Amino acid sequence: RDAIKRSTAVITGKVAEHLAPYLPPFKFNPKDARFIGSPIDLIVFDGLNDGEVRQIVFVEIKTGKKPSMNQNERLVKRAVEKSGLRGHWFT
Questions:
Q1: Neighbour order of strands in the sheet with 55-61
Q2: Which SS3 state, helix, strand or coil, does residue 53 take?
Q3: Which among 71, 75, 77, 72 has a CA at the least distance from the CA of 90?
Q4: CA–CA separation, 16 vs 10, rounded Å?
Q5: Beta strands in 1-91 (DSSP E)
Q6: What pLDDT is attached to residue 63?
Q7: Burial letters for 79-90: b for 16+ Cβ neighbours within 10 Å, e otherwise?
Q8: More confident residue, 12 or 45
Q9: In angstroms, rounded to a whole number, what is the distance separating the alpha carbons of residues 55 and 51?
Q10: How confident is the model over 26-62, as pLDDT tens digits?
Q11: Sign (positive/negative) of CA torsion 28, 32, 37, 38?
């Protein structure tokens, strides 16, 4: 039962990562988003579809009752914040 529950949570998370650009909280044009998967879910080339990239945004999407990042995701988040680049961490 526990394995099935964890597997269901993982599958739900993967589906959410792919659907996120089409849901209302997502602030960017879905056409500008590229799914990477790991160690970050999406990279958004904001404005690409309009022919003018205004910014590049790293996006990590988390689902579940207690969303948390793994070590690699935390490393990317720190690097993004340290560099002054923009990141979004959706839960």
A1: 33-35, 42-46, 55-61, 86-90
A2: coil
A3: 77
A4: 10
A5: 33-35, 42-46, 55-61, 86-90
A6: 76
A7: ebeeeeeebbbb
A8: 45
A9: 12
A10: 889 999 999 998 898 899 999 999 999 998 888 888 7
A11: negative
